[in-house]
Amino acid sequence: MPSQSSTRIAEPLLGGPDGIHLASAGARFRRGQAYIFAGILGLLTFLALALQGPCLSSGYEQPSASARMCSGPLSTAFLGQTNPEEALGRSHGGMTGLSVIDARFVQLMKLVTDDVSVFMTFVLIVNVIAFAALGVALLVLARQRAWLVAAFASPVILFTLGSTLDPVALALSLWAMVIFFGSSPVTPRPWLSGALLGIASFVNPLALLVVLALCLAGPHPAGRLRPRDPRMMFAALTITSALILVIDGSAIERILDWMREAVDGGSFASILVMARLGTAEVWAPVWIIASAGVIVAVTIALYMVRRAGLDPAVAACLLIGGCLLLAPGMMPWDSLWILPFFALTVRRWWVLIFWALAEAAFAIAIHLGDVTAIEADKGLEPTFVALLTLLRLLVLVAVVICAGENLYRRRIRGRLLRAEPPRRVEDDRPTIRVQGHGNPT
Fold first, then answer.
1. Cis peptide before 382, with omega less than 30 degrees from 0?
2. What's residue 418's pLDDT?
3. Where are the domains of the chain?
4. Spatial contact of 391 and 385, defined as CB atoms under 8 Å apart
5. pLDDT for the residue 400
């Protein structure tokens, strides 16, 4: 008996593999699709600005800023404040908790104005432009645009628009990916890609995982992407990083401060601290090493399968997701980094919906937890914050698993496993031939 299924044998009669006759979307359809996504992103950005409105009028005073879900590291550092000391599982915050470029940005803006509302207005304008650039980059990268609604309608945008400059760094990273591979109509320029990633890495070190993904996928990309040599990109990244370290002499000190206060909300380490099972100083190096170990393991796995064709979005999603899973802190502006690659990679609606709900619930819980640390009779108890944190981490596990499926299925801008023509099965039975009007011989 033949080993192929009946559907497989009948493929030549039915017209070939599934989807072979599907027509590609025309320019008018894709343009209309882009307008719809722009409208969705614009509506969500408007809601994020409306969320910041009460804090702009009140001057980001605590605890009302946390209760209204509009406080963030930049506004806190500009006011010279820190996170509440009674907030278990949270970092110290303030100026020492900012990244290199975030801290320099706050210092430069203090030379211009002392009004936090004016400062945050400028931050909101910059981040709105960054989200718009991020959306355009996603439209260029995506092969199947319908799934991008998971990124354009994500609640993460609501809670990160006025937090940090991570939207800017993420937009730079996505455009670096576009420029590196030269996705139409962009001309490939690896040196510019490296410069953009070098700047982004001093906003959030997660940009270095995008660099690693491009280094792995560049020589052996999946699908129609042409192979690229990452050495020029890496050289430009090194030069850019060296220039930033020379210009900002406090960069190394800030990186060391971040490592000492790495434990923050949204992580397994924060759950242990909230349960009073050790302190942040004890758990920080442990979870940093664990996160680095996951990155090494994922890198080795991706390196082993790279010759079959590796999608850069899949590689970035797996590296960032694996890093965040055991990272000492995973605040909403950290999980923002997995959002575009997640939308480019995962093709399961239930995962997309659960991730959006988990992110919204955690963002609300972490703000209400800060309120409880200031006023004990208000806000949300640490037990509930820990529970929502754990649920969010479990959904992240599902995200990483679904992204890892693409290493086998090759569905996202990758090589579809082409069905071979049916082979004649040789067996010991005699072959019946039909001649004339159907008389067997």
1. no
2. 42
3. 28-416
4. no
5. 92
Closest-CA residue to 174 (of 335, 319, 340): 340
User: CA 360 to CA 225: how far, in whole Å?
Assistant: 35
Q: How far apart are the first and last CA of the chain?
A: 22
Cβ-Cβ contacts under 8 Å for 223 (sequence gap 6 or more): 143, 309, 311, 413, 414, 415
Question: Most confidently modeled of 131-135, 243-247, 407-411?
Answer: 131-135
Counted residue by residue, the chain has a size of 441
What are phi and psi for residue 123, nearest 5 degrees? -60, -45
Residue type, 112: V
User: Whose structure tokens read 């190394």?
Assistant: 252
Task: Count CB neighbours of 384 within 10 A.
Answer: 15
| Alpha-helical regions (H) of 161-230 | 166-181, 190-201, 207-217
Q: What is the pLDDT of residues 328-346, one digit of tens each?
A: 999 999 999 999 998 888 8
Amino acid at 334: D
**pLDDT digit string, tens, across residues 241-261:** 999 988 887 777 777 777 777
**CA diameter of the chain:** 98
155: exposed, middle or buried (Cβ count in 10 Å: 0-12, 13-18, 19+):
buried
